[in-house]
Amino acid sequence: MSISGAGASGPEAFASARLRPLKQRIRSGESLSGCFAFLPSPAAVEILALAGFDFVIIDLEHAPKNWEVVEQMIRAAQLHKLPALVRVPEISLPWMLGALEMGAEGLVLPMLNGVAQVREALDAMLYPPQGRRGTCTQTRAAAYGAMRGGFARHAATQNERLVLMGLVETREGLGAMADLLALDPGLDLVSVGRSDLASSIGHPGQADHPEVMRATHAVLQQVNQHPVSSCRSAMVVYTPADAATWRPDGCRVFIAPSESGLLLDAGAAWVHGARSVEAGQH
Question: What does pTM read for this prediction?
């Protein structure tokens, strides 16, 4: 079940709950559930939509995919009104613009170290005058030219809807938080990548090290208690119960690490249950 608790269950109910723009739902402080999509599979994205997730993050950093697969995954998400963000492997124009022109509803930036990277992403995401995104009326995001006559309205809508999420995963990122939150426009979501952060601050392989946990709590509190910023926090959780660790910091957006992990956990639980029944018959 989705942590967000969408009320009435079923595909129609989930799709209806997702009709409001994701950016608006984030800013209103709504409880949301997302999931990373590691498998190069549009079908997996459809299943996540039918399961009731509020958004999906198509991963290109740790699970590379070709552009054709990414486009099909975005198309599958849109079929079910599931907002699809893309985690790019690096903060560079070709990766960011490629995802956006295919119709991604936003970007997830890895290894965020400072404001220069956020400004670079905003320039790629937003059409002038807010950014420097190139104007092309023939992309999938612009309906292959069908919006040519109303492109100005399309550009304005894109500028209002697109979501930008940053992953703080280094010592430099921790030190830049005050400047990152002062940006306007700026980030919509901030999350802490505890595994990479652990390595960066001298505790490789120890995501639960006390220093890592203190730093993570501090970032979430800084985000959610900021007097001006509209940015909100998000956290990757391995089980729904793990959300209880971060809710007191004001976090309301929780992300499953991957659909492949969910499949592995569900499969292992099924096998264990079946073997337990068999063992009980002897």
Answer: 0.93
